[in-house]
Amino acid sequence: MIKQIAECGSVTEAANGLGVTQSALSHRIRETERLLGTVIFYRKNKLLTLTNAGKRLLHSAEIILGEVTRVEYDISKLSQGIESIVRLGTDVYGSYHWLPQFLGEFNRSHPEIGTEIIADVSLDPLAALRRGDIDLAIMPSMIPAELFQTSRLFRDELLAILPHAHAKAGQAWLEPEAFASENYITHHTNPEKGLVYEQLFSCYNVLPRQVMRMGIMEVIIEFVQHGFGVSILPSFTICKHLESKRISTMRVTEQGLFVDWHTVMRRHEPDDSPTTIFSRALSEWTHWKESVSYNA
Fold first, then answer.
1. Are the C-beta atoms of residues 290 and 261 closer than 8 Å to each other?
2. Alpha-carbon distance 228 to 222, whole Å?
3. Which of 44, 237, 242, 259 could form a cystine bridge with 95, CB 3.0-4.6 A?
4. Fold agreement between 83-154+259-290 and 157-258
5. CA 201 distance to own-chain centroid
6. For residue 130, how many other CB atoms are within 10 A of its CB?
7. End-to-end CA, the chain
8. pTM for this one?
9. CA 114 – CA 110 distance, rounded (Å)
10. What are the pLDDT digits (tens) for 166-175?
């Protein structure tokens, strides 16, 4: 009820959305305010806006509704013989092109463990881990060991991506100074966030001419392709996106920039939990795949 009213802004629209009468919904609001002993909506010209108390109530309601949805999902899986669900998330550099192949092998060994991808945690998967929104994060950076339990998956190289028509597209590598005259397309407007800043911009004391935030990797690649700027992405992430794109890739610095991908779990995850089993299997699988190819 609170969520519906907050989204609609009026009792009439919220009542229509909930399938109840306007008078019935108004009664529910008054009864809720009576039980709580405080006003949860400001009323002005038939429009309702949340008070601070109402905002706090909505925050808790969204957590509860999310948990109810997860419970319903888990119970539906139980009826299919799946006893546990591992909720998986990645950061903004993540990709899932590898997941179907891995799950095909994992499910044969562990049919009792299901997997759910939580897509809206990429900007801060560590916070999602702490909240319990996900059970396992896959991230290409070092994680504080005192806060989380990590397992290395494989080493990856950060590559510059440029449109084919770019003047520097034929070079073997790009020096850090080259980015000072470029529009840089990334997930964050603030260049001080993320592993590229840590490994490149901060170390070499250089910043791009302009930073454009696109938020989604596929959009970043499309904008680079059409000449709006350049970017830097992990090769593991972009390998499947380059087959039909008019984009060139090259090393960043002559030596290259590298990152290690990790699985990340909560610090005290039990050794025999479904999450640990999933993480261990993924680590073994990627260590084997690392010596072959990540283009599978």
1. no
2. 9
3. 237
4. yes
5. 23
6. 13
7. 47
8. 0.66
9. 9
10. 999 889 999 9
